[in-house]
Amino acid sequence: MTKIFAHRGSKGTHPENTLAAFRHSIELGVDGIELDVHLSKDQELVVIHDETLERTTNGSGFVYEHTLAELKELNASSWFSLYDDVQQIPTLEEVLTLCNHLGFTGIVNIEVKTDQIDYPMIEERLVSLLQQEKTFIPMYSSFNLLTLDRLHKLDPIIKKAWIMEGTDSTIDFANYFQAIDSIHPNFEWVVTAQEELSGFTKSIRPWTVNQESEMWMCFEKKFSGFHTDYPEKALALKQLYVQ
Ligand code: G3P
Ligand code: MG
């Protein structure tokens, strides 16, 4: 059955990529959570979507210009009007600890944000951190094929997905690219690419699927999963679909 992934946590109802958002989505009963990782100035894996701090924190400048201690001074929820509590930028380790603490047995989709900035050795840091005992199933995803290839060489076991905007030729490439077992395409492209996708044998988990009609289509197409900002809505619809 199609798996529901909480995009950046429950981005629609909570400040994205915060512990509050991940806790909420896990407590809802999602099949997976999706998060984005960058490296701080002192090489710590931190969970935030943008390369820069302005949109989702009260800080400014690039993430890589700040140490973890400096990033921890910031409020990552002040911009989100529906939420009052202060939330820090979490480290990846803190999110994984929360998942273990909650006994989460779903998938943690770690998006490696190397499409704009090259973070040297980020792949080694990830693979090293993921050695730990865990209740959840990790997965890597990235727009960056080199990152996926490096991760695959370091750890061929953990599943990897290529995030793609989609063009006709990318499907052929995705079919034979050994490092990946799945694609995470832009949903808008998926709608127009039914023919190209019909012969595709790897798993498909589009983003960002927020409308009920779009979610329904993902169930009907038997996609492996989809990413949504509104996992609560998606879970309710899934209940209806299976009845
Ligand atoms: O993994 C799907 C999605 O998260 C990719 O886009 O920009 O939300 O990280 P973005
Ligand atoms: Mg992402």
UniProtKB/TrEMBL annotation:
Pfam families: GDPD
Gene Ontology annotations of biological process type: lipid metabolic process
InterPro entries, per database record: GP_PDE_dom, PLC-like_Pdiesterase_TIM-brl
Entry-linked Gene3D superfamilies: Phosphatidylinositol (PI) phosphodiesterase (3.20.20.190)
GO molecular function, one term: phosphoric diester hydrolase activity
Origin superkingdom: Bacteria
Domain GP-PDE: 2-238
Protein name: GP-PDE domain-containing protein
Source species: Enterococcus sulfureus ATCC 49903
Lineage: Bacteria, Bacillati, Bacillota, Bacilli, Lactobacillales
